Amino acid sequence: MKNAPSPVLIVLALWGAGLGAAGQFGKVSVVFDRFVIDYPEASPVTLGLTVSLVGFVGLILGVAAGILAQRLGYRRILVAALALGAGLSAAEASLPPLALMLPLRLAEGFSHLAIVVAAPVLIAQASSPRHMGLSMSLWSSFLAVSFALTAWLGRPLAEAQGTGALFWVHAGYMAVFAGILWGLLPPDKADSTPRLTLSGVLSDHFVIYASPRMAAPALAFFSYTLVYVALLTLLPPLIGGAHQALIATAMPLVTIAASMTLGVWLMRRFSAVAVVQAGFVGAILAGGLIWGLGGQGWPIVAAALTLAGALGLVQGASFAAVAQLNTEAPARARAAGAIAQMGNLGTTTGTPLLVLLLSGFGATGLLLFIAIPSLWGVAIHQILRHRRRVTPN
Question: How far apart are CA 322 and CA 331, in angstroms?
């Protein structure tokens, strides 16, 4: 009789799928300045869409995707999404005209959404209660880890072999993990979830966003994703110079380190919501430093890494806030779905918005881009905390 795969192996393989999903953003973000050369006729805002369009599908279908994945089977959905991502990345490797590249990136959004919906559910199923927190903390790092690896390994590959080579490697990675997870995961069980209807999906949206407990993590997480992916894309080339590669690689690593060290330490002493707010305040201060310093050199590197660390506090504590604010499993699932949806709203709009602000206001536009969403993150948590006190149930 065949032995069941180790839960640790399953969790790591699912996290690996998450790295591939994050790579759907990263493979463009870390070579964004090369895209300017590859597509000289394109406007900056149009080029920004090559990053953000992947998140557009999740913005529209985030809540519905969770219901659909439950009906069709998480294993089936996940493996199909990885296979689709492999095919689309291979098609993009030839760097087709933007009239074709942009629809391919939009289609890639279906693959991305399915992975980020199905993988964390399967991680939770594979993990014991004792290891659930560690498993989900590992999952929450997939975006930052993938960006770091893509900047460290992918950018040199693109510079040596061309941008298309990075897309081919990503296609192969997705195909390999589709095969691995098809073999590791148990077959899907029949599900009795009610039929997906437009009225049901709209009703779910209303229930989620009317709740100060289910909506709070997602509404603040929007600010994090709006700022974070855009900064990883544009801040290293904006600073430029000898430190560009260092910043591109180190920023996501500092985010992870801050989340899993200082963030964990703070959450033993304060609520997750308070840690999120502290992270946003730190981001504003770091953005002010970048604006005030200008230029290049080690001070600007330190300010950029401080900004990444502050946003790392927001990343980890936002996922922890889902569990702290929602004690029942159905409410947690809805809150997690809202985080996915608001996260995609942020990743879809962030890069084009930052390009627009930089072209119009320069360094001041960068400061506004960091400060205004961060102030929103602090304020919305404060408002919804008050609502929870007034109406505890």
Answer: 9
**What secondary structure letter does DSSP report for 297?**
S
Q: What sign does the CA torsion over 222, 110, 64, 74 have? A: negative
Q: What's the fold here for domain 1-186? A: Growth Hormone; Chain: A; (1.20.1250)
Residue 97 backbone class (left: φ over 0; alpha: ψ -120 to 50; beta: rest): beta
Q: What is the pLDDT of residues 16-65, one digit of tens each?
A: 999 999 999 889 888 888 887 888 887 777 887 787 788 778 777 776 77
Alpha-carbon distance 313 to 258, whole Å?
6
Class of domain 200-393: mainly alpha
Q: Do domains 1-186 and 200-393 have the same CATH topology?
A: yes
CA–CA separation, 267 and 223 (whole Å): 20
Global confidence as pTM: 0.74
Q: What are 316-359's pLDDT values in tens digits? A: 888 778 778 887 756 766 777 788 788 878 877 888 899 899 88
